[in-house]
Specification:
single chain; 480 residues; 4-stranded mixed β-sheet; 14 strands; binds iron/sulfur cluster
Length: 480
């Protein structure tokens, strides 16, 4: 298993094409726009070597019997599913940001299950290919991204109906030794600091759309692959001189998402895990989405622990910590946060064994988990804003605090209780700001799919007819 430094060194061995604000980034480890996200993923590698976290962060490979980082493991029990959630809460508590590696983790588990089921149904040999790929990922402790979301263009049209055929990743040539793919994947978490990309379809497909039914893996620096790194709220605060205003300088906010462009990329057959089987595209989407929605009551509650702590500590510094209404609001934040955790624990404990032998969380409960995240995180943030006060939106800059002339005024007039330095108050406010404004909240809404995507799966999974039968029986209704 790699440690944090080895992960950073391994990224430096790769040569992905990454662009940010019109400039090419030569090295994502040391560039201010990407360093916090590298640090956050590196934390996973570090925690796997900490005896305190070993049980959560490591597992035994069912393929090789070797000790591996849990982020490359295929779930063998509901206990594995539960450990995944607990592990994510633990990392969220240490980073207060998105540590990104879960997306590839979920892609590995989804492709594992679906390639097995596909082979059984159609006599193909995708699963064996995938097992070889998985062994390589486990042995080298790699971080693949999970690239699902296509740009999609006109959402009312299917992939084959779009004016531009490249708005969903598709096969443009089939060769004896592999395929050539074109298109893009949008807002892919951790993609610029991953080693590999695992690509999956993003929507249900129909007959005639075989070229869009494609799943494969490529190295991040494969010829024809390029990345355009997205902007984030306040990202111009990410600079060497900004230790306070950036809020969470070490780990940043959310995952550092990028558009990945595939410009006629060759993929050898041994790295192709779905090619043309349209009826298995949606099952793969659903499997991956459920795995990722399972996570959100883990990672987000870790972040919630930090946010609740920051808000409570700030209230103490502002002299409101003992006020009844503040205590009540903090209690509500805790209640909402723990409710989310309950959801992730529930869908994991109610998980079950699939045909491949690997385990899968309860899909209805996993979708409910993420649906709640789209609401509760906003409410937790609203309460944090309420307690923090308008100062969060009006604070002077770090430069003013450190200015030889202005600093004494900032120090004097932004002080809370007498015995705590003003800078401590400002640091907590900036952390709360980073965790609750702009990009961070949108991630809670749309990460792992929009609320509507969860609604669709909730409707599919809920067995409404069964509920109607229950009611009719008790009410003595005999009509159909
Ligand atoms: Fe992992 Fe949470 Fe980030 Fe998704 S949002 S990649 S589950 S930390």
């Amino acid at each position: 298993m790699m440690n944090g430094q080895q992960y950073r060194d391994s990224l430096k061995q790769l040569k992905p094409r990454v662009y940010f604000m019109g400039q090419q980034i030569e090295n994502v480890v040391d560039h201010p726009a990407t360093t916090p996200h590298v640090n956050c993923a590196a934390k996973i590698y570090e925690m796997a070597h900490d005896p305190q976290f070993e049980e959560l962060f490591t597992a035994t490979s069912h393929l090789t019997g070797q000790k591996i980082n849990r982020f490359t493991h295929i779930h063998q029990s509901t206990d594995d599913l539960l450990k995944k959630v607990k592990m994510m809460r633990a990392i969220g508590q240490q980073t207060a940001s998105c540590f990104q590696r879960c997306v590839g983790f979920d892609a590995l588990n989804a492709v594992y299950q679906i390639s097995y089921e596909l082979d059984r149904a159609k006599g193909t040999n995708y699963h064996q290919r995938f097992l070889e790929y998985l062994k390589m990922v486990q042995d080298r402790d790699l971080m693949p991204s999970g690239a699902m979301t296509d740009p999609k263009g006109d959402r009312s049209l299917s992939p084959s109906q779009q004016a531009d055929p490249d708005l969903h990743v598709h096969v443009v040539a089939r060769r004896e030794n592999g395929i050539v793919v074109r298109g893009a994947k949008a807002q892919i978490t951790g993609s610029v600091n991953s080693h590999e990309h695992i690509v999956m379809p993003t929507v249900a497909l129909k007959e005639g759309e075989e070229d869009y039914a494609v799943s494969f893996a490529v190295p991040v620096d494969a010829p024809g692959v390029l990345h355009i790194f997205g902007r984030q709220t306040n990202d111009d605060r990410k600079c060497a001189a900004c230790a306070i205003d950036v809020g969470n300088p070490e780990f940043g906010i959310v995952g550092g998402e990028a558009l990945i462009v595939f410009e006629d990329v060759f993929v050898p057959w041994e790295r192709v895990f779905l090619c043309g089987e349209v009826d298995f595209a949606y099952p793969l989407v659903e499997r991956f989405a459920t795995f990722h929605r399972q996570n959100y009551g883990g990672c987000k509650t870790g972040l919630g622990d930090v946010l609740i702590g920051a808000t409570s500590a700030l209230a103490d510094i502002q002299g409101t910590g003992k006020a009844a209404h503040v205590r009540e609001k903090i209690a509500e934040m805790i209640h909402l946060n723990e409710t989310l955790y309950c959801c992730s624990i529930a869908c994991s404990s109610q998980g079950y064994k699939t045909a491949s032998g690997a385990y899968y969380p309860d899909p209805l409960l996993a979708n409910v988990t993420k649906q709640n995240v789209t609401r509760f995180i906003y409410e937790i943030a609203r309460l944090a804003h309420d307690i923090t006060g308008g100062i969060m939106a009006t604070l002077p800059s770090e430069q003013d605090l450190k200015d030889p002339v202005l600093g004494k005024y900032v120090e004097k007039y932004y002080k809370g209780v007498a015995d705590v330095p003003t800078e401590d108050r400002i640091r907590l406010i900036r952390l709360i700001e980073a965790m609750t404004c702009g990009t961070a909240l949108v991630e809670s809404m749309h990460g792992a799919g929009s609320p509507q995507a969860m609604r669709i799966m909730i409707q599919r999974q809920a067995n409404l007819e069964h509920k109607k039968r229950l009611a009719k029986k008790l009410a003595g209704v005999t009509s159909k």
